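Treating backbone geometry as a discrete language has practical consequences that deserve illustration. No coordinates are needed to read the tokens, only the vocabulary itself. For completeness, the protein is quoted in full, as a sequence line and a line of structure tokens:
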Amino acid sequence: MYNRDFNENPFIVIWELTRACELKCLHCRAEAQYHRDPRELSFEEGKKLIDQIYELDSPMLVFTGGDPLMRADVYDIADYAIKKGIRVSMTPSATPNVTKKAIQKAKEVGLSRWAFSLDGPTAEVHDHFRGTTGSFDLTTNAINYLHELEIPVQINTVISRYNYDMLDDMAQLVEKLNCVLWSVFFLVPTGRGKVDDMITPVEHEKVFRWLYDLSKRVSFDIKTTAAQHYRRVVIQSKMRENKNPEQDIRYKDALMQGTTGGIDGLGRAPKGVNDGNGFVFISHIGDVYPSGLLPIKAGNVRETPLGEIYRESEIFKNLRNPNKFKGKCGVCEFRFVCGGSRSRAYALTGDYMESEPFCVYIPKVLRNKKKMHRKT
């Protein structure tokens, strides 16, 4: 995995099995519906897709939705992938579908882990965010089932103005629930997500610094999504700690954090994964996107093999070349390790190659230009 060339093969593939879901989350990327779409990829089409995923040097595969448990054949699909040697994990919604029996079946099939969303330290906050009363209790009960069955648990949390002031309590809850990984998502205003729900650029920076400090003292690992600039904060912090401000910017410095470091089977990538760069998303009807948060279609697996779309699409090629990024992202010394959220750039500017709008950092080259200008 460390030597994986992202121009050839992705590190992670996300497959949206269905958009059906019983929840009504305020920020839902998929704008999920209660009923399944008849155009979903069939089981046979799913097997063909898994064959193609396997040919991409067997990346990690994550089943998402909607709620993947809304598909009766989800375990058959997982079984097919796992028997090919692909690591599979799942992010189901916390609904009554998540029974102890369902989790037991997942273990028998061989799912490597389950991820659940918790967006607040209390039922009041979380249930408001998820649009469904009782979701918090269902989630914590499901996590207890997973512990009983010795399946690793990941918690996903979307940072927004609704929970920004409760992050200390949130971290304590993740610790208390004995989770192996806290995956912290930073809101991108797409789907049902709204710009008004986002925290400010300065608040992003504050949360990044807080997360880095937290990562040094907790038992779980921390991963961020749609927050590529967290990697910059990690590197800067390590440089300060090493008292070497001129230290080379290296991928491992950004990602070898937490308790286990490196690729730990929990979803952390070995270098600067970004939308379309080591990452690919397949929708319920087979449309291929750089990520679920960047809704620019590059092809459809019913018409073109996944590998061809990933390797040859102009959109994906652009996203894999940080030197082509516009504005400060294109000249930033951290562009190959960070690159900013391409999804957020698109959501707020309409151009996926524009600068990350919620980054406060001023690249060295621009600071030097400013100094030169002052001197003249």
